[in-house]
Q: What sequence folds into this?
């Protein structure tokens, strides 16, 4: 038993040194791993520190680019205001204004797109600056065109002023000519009135003082019964004698009135308001009155009166001397009128 206990004691003494060795080995491995971990941590911290520095630099660059973009946008806004002013002042340059508006819209679009493309912003900003210079050049061109238009307007206003003066002078000349013309016409009318008075006086001497031939205003009036039968347009023998004497007076009048005075003897036929009988020669009073006036004119021409001094017109029943339906009124309204008037 004493041997067995001594052996067990020896076995325990043999295990301990091996256990210590294992622990030492594990400890060394742990220390080694810990050293490796610390070394890795060191390198990682150095790497992360470098990345933070790079990120800070990148942020700084982004801020600088953002400020440059804001300045460019401010310049674009100023340019927009300038172009808006030009659009209000130069209405004749619509095409050019539209082109500049499109150019400004393109600049704004490119500037907005640059906000999402920070990496390539420098190149885009160079393009924007070039476009801005082009736009400013266009503004200078438009200003030059505006000045040219102002000079043209000044020249036109000056020409209009001269034209206004000329118009006033022309108006004075026209008014003077109008006054002279009116005076000349008045003199001719007065002269023609004098010849009319003389002519009517001569007719009264030729035709005698008859109740059925009279002067009414500026007209010499024959009752139709003096010249025509009822409803007819053929001149009766007694009326023919009266018109032959009338033609003699008219031919004498043609020699007395100066050639520069235009005149005619207007022969007007009138009827009463009684309807034409059905189946007669004429369909209406109008046709009858016109036919009678033409018959008188034709006889005067046959007696040597110049045709250019004669006019025939038919009024039918539509220009009565008196209103009413008595036989006497009907008789007075049936008539042939002679009127010496301007040609």
A:
């Amino acid at each position: 038993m004493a041997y067995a206990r001594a052996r067990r004691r020896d076995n325990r003494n043999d295990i301990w040194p091996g256990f210590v060795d294992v622990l030492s080995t594990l400890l060394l491995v742990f220390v080694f791993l810990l050293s490796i971990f610390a070394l890795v941590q060191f390198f990682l911290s150095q790497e992360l520190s470098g990345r933070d520095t790079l990120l800070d630099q990148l942020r700084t660059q982004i801020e600088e680019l953002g400020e440059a973009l804001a300045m460019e946008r401010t310049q674009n806004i100023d340019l927009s205001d300038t172009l808006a002013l030009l659009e209000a002042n130069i209405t004749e340059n619509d095409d050019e204004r539209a082109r500049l508006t499109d150019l400004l819209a393109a600049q704004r679009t490119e500037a907005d797109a640059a906000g999402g493309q920070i990496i390539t912003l420098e190149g885009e900003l160079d393009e924007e600056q070039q476009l801005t210079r082009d736009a400013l050049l266009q503004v200078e061109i438009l200003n030059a065109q505006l000045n040219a238009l102002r000079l043209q307007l000044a020249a036109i206003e000056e020409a209009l002023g001269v034209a206004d003066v000329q118009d006033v002078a022309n108006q004075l000349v026209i008014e003077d000519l109008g006054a002279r013309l009116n005076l000349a016409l008045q003199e001719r009318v007065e002269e023609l009135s004098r010849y009319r008075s003389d002519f009517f006086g001569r007719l009264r001497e030729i035709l005698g003082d008859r109740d059925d031939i009279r002067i009414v205003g500026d007209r010499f009036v024959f009752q139709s019964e003096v010249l025509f039968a009822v409803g007819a347009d053929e001149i009766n023998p007694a009326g023919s004698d009266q018109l032959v004497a009338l033609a003699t007076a008219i031919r004498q009048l043609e020699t007395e009135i100066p050639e520069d005075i235009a005149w005619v003897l207007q022969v007007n036929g009138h009827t009463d308001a009684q309807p034409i009988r059905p189946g007669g020669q004429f369909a209406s009073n109008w046709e009858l009155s016109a036919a009678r006036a033409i018959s008188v004119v034709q006889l005067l021409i046959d007696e040597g009166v110049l045709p250019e001094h004669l006019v025939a017109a038919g009024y039918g029943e539509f220009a009565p001397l008196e209103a009413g339906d008595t036989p006497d009124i009907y008789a007075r309204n049936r008539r042939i009128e002679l009127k010496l008037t301007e040609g």
